[in-house]
Specification:
35% of the residues lie in helices and 22% in strands. By secondary structure, it is an alpha+beta fold.
Length: 465
C-alpha cells in the first residue's frame, strides 16, 4: 500500500512534469479575447468558458458543466468528489479579462502569448487564466499518479470577475448546494515578489461609474463661441480635480468616516514590511515622481486599507484629428477602491453627490453605472487552513510566505465565504508586482507559476489531514 507521504511525493514530482501541458492550455486560453466589459466580446467570453470546460475535462475533473443565471456570463464548474469524509475544497479562478488598453503600447500582441526572459506575456496570462490552469494541473497531478487528491475538490471558474461579479449573489443562491465546501482557495492574488510567495488576508472593495457633462447639442467653432460657451472638457477637468486634495487624498466630504481604523500595532507591522523602493521600480514609476497620500501613513496601508479614486478613462475629442471646436460633451470613468469598513454603496452615493455639486456653469450631468459597489474583505489569517497554506507555499517556493493585503478587488470572496457559514478563504496567486495586470505587457513568471501548482498539490494534502 502506498503511504500518504509517497503519494504526495509522486504528485509533487508529477506537477513538474505536467507544466508543458499546462502551458499549452494557458496559451490557448490567452488567445481568446474574453473581455468581459465589452459587449462586442460576448461570444469570446462564451468561447473562453467552453475552452475552460474542455481543459478541466482533459485534466480529469468530473461532471464538468457550464452554469449561468439570466443575464450572466457563463461560469464553469467541475468536481472530483471521491475523498470520502475528507474536507471539500473549492478552487476558484476567473476566465474573463480586462481590455488590452492601447494595443500599440504592447511589446507583442496582447492576445498572442509570447515568452521573454522566463515570463509569458499576454492579456490574462497572470490575471487569471493562469489561476484556472493551475487548479486543473494540481488536481491532474494527483489523478495521474494515483486514485486522486486526498480530499474532495470543486472547481469554479467565473466569467464576470472583471466587471465586479454583478450576478454573483443570485448565482450563489441558485447553485449553493452544488458548490458547498469547507475551504475556499482562490488563485487570483499575487506573490510578494518573484520567488517570494504570499498569502493575502485583505482586499479592497470596488465600485465605479461613468460621468458625462453636456453643454451643447453638437460641437461648435471654438473661435466663434469660445469665451462665452462653456467647454465641457474644461468643466470635467474642474470636477475631477476636486476629487483629491494637494496630497492626493480623497477630498469628498465624509468619505473616510466609516473606514476601519488602523491600530498602532498594525501600522508598525505594515511599516516593517519595507520594500517601497522595490515597489516603485516594479510599478515603473519615473524618477522624481512622488507617491501620493498622507506621508505619515505607511504605503502599504494606503494601498491595502484606505480607499482610492482613480480616473480610468476619459473622453472629449482625441488629439489626433481634433479641430478648433468646443465639443458637446465630455465623459470620464471613475473607479473606486473601497477600504475595509466602508459601506460601498454609501461611498458610491457620496462620490456622485460631490461630483454633481461641483459641476460648473449649469452643465447637464449624467451618471451611468459600470461596476456594482462591492465591499472590502478582510480576515484574520490564523487557524489550521492558514497554517496549511503557509507550509505548502514554504515547501513549494523554498521561501517564507508573506502575509499581505492587496489593493485590488475580488468581489467573490466575501459573499462565498459568508454563504457557507464563514468558511476560511485562502488567497494565493500566479502574479507578482511586475506582472502589470490590467496594464500593457501583462505577464506571468513561469517559474513561480510552477511553484504555485506544486503549492496547490501540497495544499490539497495538507487540508485533507
Amino acid at each position: 500500500m502506498t503511504s500518504s507521504g509517497d503519494a504526495l511525493s509522486a504528485a509533487v514530482a508529477r506537477a513538474g512534469d505536467v507544466m508543458d501541458d499546462a502551458r499549452r492550455d494557458l496559451e490557448q486560453l490567452v488567445r481568446i479575447p474574453s473581455v468581459g466589459i465589452d459587449p462586442a466580446h460576448e461570444r469570446d467570453v462564451e468561447a473562453s468558458a467552453d475552452a475552460t470546460a474542455e481543459m478541466l475535462v482533459r485534466w480529469g475533473l468530473e461532471n464538468v458543466r457550464l452554469a449561468s443565471i439570466e443575464g450572466s456570463a457563463p461560469y464553469v464548474i467541475g468536481e472530483w468528489l471521491h475523498g470520502g469524509d475528507a474536507p471539500t475544497v473549492l478552487l476558484y479562478a476567473h476566465h474573463d479579462v480586462q481590455p488590452p488598453g492601447v494595443e500599440a503600447r504592447w511589446s507583442s500582441p496582447p492576445f498572442e502569448p509570447v515568452e521573454r526572459n522566463g515570463r509569458l506575456y499576454g492579456r490574462g496570462s497572470a490575471d487569471d487564466k493562469a489561476g484556472a490552469v493551475a487548479h486543473a494541473a494540481a488536481v491532474g497531478a494527483w489523478l495521474q499518479t494515483g486514485p486522486g487528491p486526498p480530499c474532495n475538490v470543486r472547481v469554479l471558474v467565473e466569467g464576470e470577475e472583471e466587471i465586479s461579479s454583478p450576478h454573483l449573489f443570485a448565482f450563489l443562491e441558485q447553485h449553493a448546494q452544488e458548490l458547498r465546501s469547507d475551504v475556499l482557495v482562490l488563485a487570483d492574488a499575487e506573490n510578494w515578489a518573484v520567488g517570494v510567495p504570499a498569502l493575502t488576508y485583505s482586499l479592497r472593495g470596488i465600485g465605479g461609474f461613468d460621468v458625462t457633462l453636456r453643454a451643447l447639442r453638437g460641437p461648435v467653432h471654438s473661435g466663434m463661441a469660445g469665451g462665452a460657451v462653456p467647454d465641457p472638457v474644461m468643466a470635467l477637468a474642474k470636477v475631477l480635480a476636486s476629487l483629491t486634495d494637494e496630497r492626493g487624498d480623497i477630498a469628498v466630504p465624509g468619505y473616510y468616516d466609516d473606514v476601519a481604523p488602523t491600530s498602532d500595532a498594525q501600522r508598525d507591522a505594515l511599516d516593517a514590511l519595507g520594500g517601497v523602493d522595490d515597489l516603485r521600480v516594479a510599478l515603473g514609476m519615473l524618477e522624481g515622481v512622488d507617491l501620493v497620500g498622507e506621508p505619515s501613513v505607511p504605503v502599504w496601508e494606503r494601498l491595502w486599507l484606505r480607499p482610492a479614486i482613480t480616473i480610468t478613462g476619459i473622453d472629449g475629442h482625441p488629439v489626433a484629428g481634433s479641430s478648433n471646436q468646443i465639443v458637446a460633451s465630455a465623459s470620464a470613468r471613475i473607479s473606486m477602491r473601497v477600504a475595509p469598513g466602508q459601506d460601498a454603496r454609501r461611498a458610491d452615493r457620496l462620490l456622485r453627490e460631490h461630483i454633481a455639486a461641483q459641476v460648473p456653469w449649469g452643465l447637464h450631468c449624467e451618471f451611468t453605472d459600470v461596476f456594482t459597489p462591492s465591499p472590502a474583505w478582510r480576515c484574520d489569517p490564523v487557524g489550521w487552513p492558514f497554517d496549511a497554506a503557509q507550509r505548502s507555499l514554504r515547501d513549494a517556493f523554498g521561501a517564507e510566505p508573506v502575509l499581505m493585503g492587496v489593493g485590488g478587488s475580488i468581489p467573490f470572496v466575501g459573499p462565498f465565504a459568508d454563504a457557507f457559514g464563514g468558511i476560511p478563504a485562502l488567497l494565493v496567486g500566479p502574479g507578482d508586482p511586475t506582472s502589470a495586470i490590467h496594464g500593457e505587457d501583462e505577464s506571468l513568471h513561469l517559474g513561480d507559476w510552477h511553484h504555485l501548482v506544486e503549492a496547490e498539490v501540497r495544499l490539497l494534502a495538507e487540508l485533507a489531514t
